[in-house]
Amino acid sequence: MKIIVTDLTRFNNQDVCIAGICPDTGACIRPLPYLSKARCLELNILPGAILAGQFTPRRCSPPHGEDHSYKNLVFCGPCSSAAFRNILAESATESVEDGFSVRIPQGQKYIPTETPPNISIITLRIDPQGLQIVKDCYNDTKLRVHIMENSGRELRYISITDLGFYECAMSHVAERGALDRLNDFLHSQEEVFVRVGLSREHESQGRKGFWIQANGIYTFPDCPKDIRSYH
Q1: CA 147 to CA 62: how far, in whole Å?
Q2: Taking the CB of residue 64, how many other CB atoms lie within 10 A of it?
């Protein structure tokens, strides 16, 4: 089976979680165990990379039904920008609630453990003006994202786990006006797709569940080259 990589998710250690969509079936596959960042760099795995391998579904509880064991993982080269845009567009939804098929109260950034959806990654299509990169309100050394759905519903201060996007943004954040320039670029684009993921079960301040995160932030027709590279 071949997949096109749509998610390259950072961890605090040097592991990277990748996920991709099979262009033949539309199935989302998350290869496990995680790859190291060094291994991803060695294989040149970036969003849009085509990977081939033997993928076997793992027995797991919802919502992480995308988990698959893998063998003989091979990098087959990058797909075209048009093919990458199409794989995102074909999987896209207009709202997080529709994508996960669950109700999420306004302002809530997690799905409770008791009501997990069947999937843990969706593609959200939004107006470019609905994306805003901001500093964390409690720690200005971290970045978050505000996401406004086309309905007007807003998800605020969402964690950015997109490896390339986050590392690129953080490398420039100390520069005067850097966030303004980044947001101006995002707003200048014709299309924005956000790969919205759910974390593994986690408890924070008495709230236990699967936390919403931005696994991938993709703009079309343009994308700065240094966003899709290793830093």
Answers
A1: 25
A2: 21
124-171 pLDDT tens trace = 999 999 999 999 888 877 899 999 999 999 999 999 999 999 988 888
Q: Are 59 and 17 in contact (CB under 8 A)?
A: no
Taking phi over 0 as left and psi of -120 to 50 as alpha, with beta for the rest, 141 belongs to alpha
C-alpha 197/C-alpha 100 separation (Å) is 10
166/10 Cα distance (integer angstroms):
9
Q: How far from 140 is each of 68, 104, 157, CA to CA, in Å?
A: 36, 27, 12
Q: Round to whole Å and give the CA distance between 123 and 90.
A: 9
d(CA 44, CA 19): 15
Count CA atoms closer than 13 A to 189's CA, side-chain side.
23
